[in-house]
Design goal:
Blueprint (H helix, E strand, L loop, with lengths): L19 H8 L5 H10 L8 H19 L8 H10 L5 H13 L4 H6 L4 H11 L11 H29 L15 E3 L6 E3 H7 L7 H4 L1
Antiparallel strand pairs: 1-2
Amino acid sequence: MTDANDPDSSDDADSDSNSKVVRVLQRYELVGLGDELVEYWTGEATERKSLRELADYFNRELLARVLRDASVDTLDGEQANLYRLLTDEGVSSGAAVQATNRLEQHGIDVDQLTADFVSRQAIHTYLTSYRDVSYSSSDDDPVETETTNVRRLRRRMTTIVESKIERLRTTGRITLGAFNVLIDVRVLCEDCGAQYQVTELFDRGGCECTTDSSDE
């Protein structure tokens, strides 16, 4: 049995370019599941889920996909029970073996399946490093939260551009000496023509210009 929420799983120490969640999404063509994770974690969906709940949700969706691909018919609630038998450390070894044997009879590689289950840490890495989202409670300062998000996006963009340039330079497609990548995103106020860096605009609380509409 596998503890799908074990934070020490070796595959879960992912970078944004080597996310286990991304690999599983692509391998099993779980279209739309990544967006669901974002919606459930940020509260954009009707009910917010914790990272542990998201990991279980992801793994159950993965199991459901594998069962469909193998044409395994299940009764209502049976998929949830199969997931429990495969992951719950409290399940007897006999019950776990029975579940494994049943799946293997349908040609399912149970070892590969359970290895592809993800932990809450892998979900967190995917959401924060790959999707660049964060959860903020009602007590958090939204300006501070969005400032952090913008800075994270800028760092990620810098890393991506650097890697693309380095790849082209290494393969001889472009010629370039030592270099630095500078990402400068600015906001233009069309009312007064003032320009600000995004984080500067946040820090200032907006543009200081006075428009006709604000005087009315």
